[in-house]
Design brief:
The complex is a heterodimer. By secondary structure, chain A is mostly helical. Helix content of chain A is 76%, strand content 1%. Chain B is mainly alpha-helical. Chain B has one domain. Chain B is built from 7 helices and no strands. Classes of the chains: A mainly alpha, B mainly alpha.
């Protein structure tokens, strides 16, 4: 199989489908085209991911500008899962809106086209070897998804969109400054114009980069991409955008867009660590941002009234946990990568449930109005309840396992302050979120509503992710373990390989 | 060879100060357009000895987009919205200029710490000027309430980064550079559409009054 063409197609299929979707003659055709695009890309993507993760290849294309190693393959895997599930859900969700005449053909065309475009942009981020192109991809996701937030134009959605586009554009501009500084740090190495921004070249030459510049670069990159990843204190756009976007969009925002931004930071970590001599200089910033995000999110979760905002703050918390894991290094990196998958799967499910329950309860996401949802929609109530349980780290689910590994990593590295702050934050979230979830499902509702039946697809969307989370919590398959290990070694490789190679 | 760059950098900083002190949106847009043209010229002046088609293309693209397309879009925005002045900024104009001077000081200090150019060369003003422009853009986004002004702030920020990029990294491949320019262009375009919708829905462009979503 020619993987060079596969890498190209991974970008081109969604990009071209996005353009075609604008011409769809009816809503059904538009949604059908979108699903065809997503699933055909998924099949191609899985073949490439299989080659990388199972057979240990590294794929290159376009004169090394595109590449896929274990880290990008693993992230691409998470992205494809999120997009496939969300696309099925989008059909279910918009079918309801079409039934109630809430959606015009123009809006559905806009949605499907931007959806495919967003998929193409995120793929560009993941498989580009050129750090400049990676930045272009991130900025493109911001611009494309901005209009996904206000598919339904209202005052609130416009406000959310404005905050999103302004804060994220400014943040990502900082990341651009960081990218330039990283390129400037390579000036002394004498790389040609073709190689100056290639990740593989920078990694190989990391030891001879100018440390002053690379440090300045990392600060800019961390703040810039951190804004897009929703790390506190740059998170203020996130709850607004997540709560105002239609549920399928919130699901890809939370399920993957944030991870894509964090992925960019991950790419720089081995370079920065090698250039600064493995002192953990960059990692401690990640720990700081991680812990701060967890604490801030915990405070807001406790007093939240809106279900989707609650879930948005959960995203901030979990992205903080992932950043913390990366910052701890070693087992922490492994745990963080595992947590990425668990969180994405769980968060997509919870946004699915929140969106569908919101539709059933007349468009409101106020948890008080939605209380006692179990008799009204058993399937989605179970979905929201179990996913919140998983999100706060209840035992058999996979998120518990990854958080447990993270605790172990913290203990191993004797980071006692970090550990206690993490446990404090997690404890607050546990109590706060459980206090919201129980009345939401079992409370008494004063308005009487007819029970709403769920079809096969809806049941699948709830129970398949839950089953996977449960299985992964109890048993980790061998291929996943190898994949996580090889992806983690890319982030941590600098410390093990180059430190022995650099010395005289 | 060095002196035109120095003059351009001084003009850049002066235009930043003017932007901080002016309230008329139309004038601000003209100044930003001037900055864009200045930067287009700057790209050519830096590499005057070795002009390549690539460089001319990038310089021309940024000259046209930043000097003419953005101002056209923004001035149209003003016409649609009917706002001519920034009303009651969070931070007054005199304080803003003082803050600008402070930012210039910080930038000079930072520029001295980032040893990008050999001490003797005349380009020592580049990093401070670029950083001042970056900070000015950021300051305007924070200190002004009008959405159009915030959009202007974003363009100014981008100008600062672009200035830095021209000098520090000449070797960025054309494709990357064009991708970046396209992204910035689309960003301003998207902001323009957002402003249009906000104006239609709210009848004002005061971002401070976009305050329904909380908590």
């Amino acid at each position: 199989m020619n993987y060079e063409i596969v890498l190209w197609l991974l970008i081109l299929i969604p990009a071209i489908s996005g353009l075609i979707c604008v011409l769809a003659p009816s809503p059904k055709v538009a949604l059908g085209m979108m699903c065809t695009c997503v699933f055909s890309t998924a099949l191609l993507g899985f073949s490439a991911i299989g080659a990388v993760l199972l057979h240990g290849k590294i794929l290159f294309a376009a004169a090394n500008w595109l590449f896929m190693d274990a880290l990008s393959a693993y992230n691409l895997f998470v992205m494809i899962i999120v997009f496939c599930l969300s696309s099925i859900y989008a059909c279910v969700y918009f079918q309801q809106e079409l039934l109630h005449n809430n959606l015009t053909l123009k809006q559905i065309r806009q949605f499907t086209s931007l959806w495919c475009g967003a998929m193409a942009a995120m793929t560009v981020v993941l498989i580009s070897n050129n750090l400049g192109i990676m930045w272009v991809g991130i900025e493109a996701t911001t611009l494309i998804t901005a209009f996904l937030i206000c598919i339904h134009v209202s005052r609130e959605s416009l406000e959310a969109m404005w905050k999103y586009i302004l804060i994220c554009s400014v943040g990502v501009a900082f990341a651009f400054m960081g990218t330039l500084l990283a390129a400037a740090s390579a000036k002394s190495v004498g790389l040609g114009s073709h190689n100056a921004l290639l990740w593989t070249t920078l990694r190989d030459n990391a030891a001879s980069l100018n440390p002053v510049f690379i440090k300045a670069a990392f600060i800019f990159l961390l703040v810039g991409y951190g804004t897009k990843a929703g790390l506190a204190p740059m998170h203020s756009w996130l709850p607004d955008a997540h709560s105002q976007a239609p549920a399928p969009v919130s699901a890809i925002f939370s399920g993957f867009m944030l991870n894509a931004a964090l992925y960019c930071i991950m790419r720089y970590v081995p370079i920065v660590e090698t250039a600064t001599g493995h002192t953990g200089w960059g990692l401690k910033f990640l720990v700081g941002f991680g812990i701060f995000s967890i604490i801030v999110a915990a405070a807001f979760i406790t007093f939240q009234k809106d279900l989707k905002r609650l879930l948005a703050y959960h995203s901030i918390e979990h992205l903080g946990i992932i950043a913390l894991g990366f910052g701890l290094g070693g087992l922490g990196t492994f745990a963080a990568l595992f947590h990425t998958f668990n969180h994405s799967l769980c968060k997509t499910l919870s946004f699915f449930a929140a969106g569908r329950l919101g539709q059933i309860f007349g468009g409101s996401h106020d948890m008080e109005k939605m209380s006692g949802s179990l008799p009204v929609s058993p399937v989605w109530s179970i979905g929201i309840f179990c996913s919140i349980l998983a999100l706060i780290g209840i035992a058999p689910f996979a998120l518990f396992m990854s958080e447990f590994q993270l605790v172990k990593a913290a203990v191993d590295s004797h980071a006692w302050v970090v550990l206690s702050l993490f446990l404090l934050g997690a404890g607050l979230v546990f109590v706060g979120a459980l206090g919201h979830a129980i009345p939401l499902v079992w409370g008494t509702n004063h308005e009487s509503r007819k029970p709403v039946k769920a079809n096969f697809f809806e049941a699948f969307l709830v129970f398949a992710p839950l089953a996977v989370l449960l299985v992964l919590g109890l048993w980790m398959p061998k291929p996943l373990f190898t994949a996580l290990n090889s992806a983690a070694s890319i982030i941590g490789i600098a410390s093990s390989v180059t430190s022995s190679g650099v010395g005289p | 060879m060095d002196s035109p760059i120095e003059i351009m950098m001084i003009l850049l900083v002066l235009s930043d100060m003017a932007l901080l002190g002016l309230s008329r949106l139309r004038t601000c847009i003209s100044i930003v357009s001037f900055q864009g043209m200045l930067l287009g010229g700057l790209a050519l002046v830096t590499q005057f000895g070795s002009l390549t088609p690539r460089l001319i293309m990038i310089a021309a693209a940024s000259f046209v987009i930043k000097g003419f397309v953005f101002p056209y879009l923004l001035k149209r925005g003003i016409r649609e919205a009917g706002t001519l002045h920034e009303s009651e900024p969070f931070i007054g104009y005199i304080t803003s200029v003082l803050a600008g001077v402070a930012m210039l000081g910080i930038s000079l200090w930072l520029g001295a710490r980032l040893p990008l150019f050999a001490a003797g060369s005349g380009n020592y003003l580049v990093v401070p000027a670029a950083l001042t422009t970056l900070f000015t853009g950021l300051f305007l986004i924070i200190a002004r309430r009008n959405a159009l002004n915030q959009c202007l702030g974003y363009i100014i920020m981008e100008n600062g980064i672009y200035t830095f990029g021209i000098f520090s990294v000449v070797e960025i491949p054309l494709l990357v550079e064009l991708g970046i320019l396209l992204d910035v262009f689309v960003a301003v375009f998207v902001m323009g559409i957002a402003i249009y919708h906000i104006n239609r829905e709210f009848d004002h462009l005061d971002s401070h009054r976009l305050n329904v979503l909380k908590g």
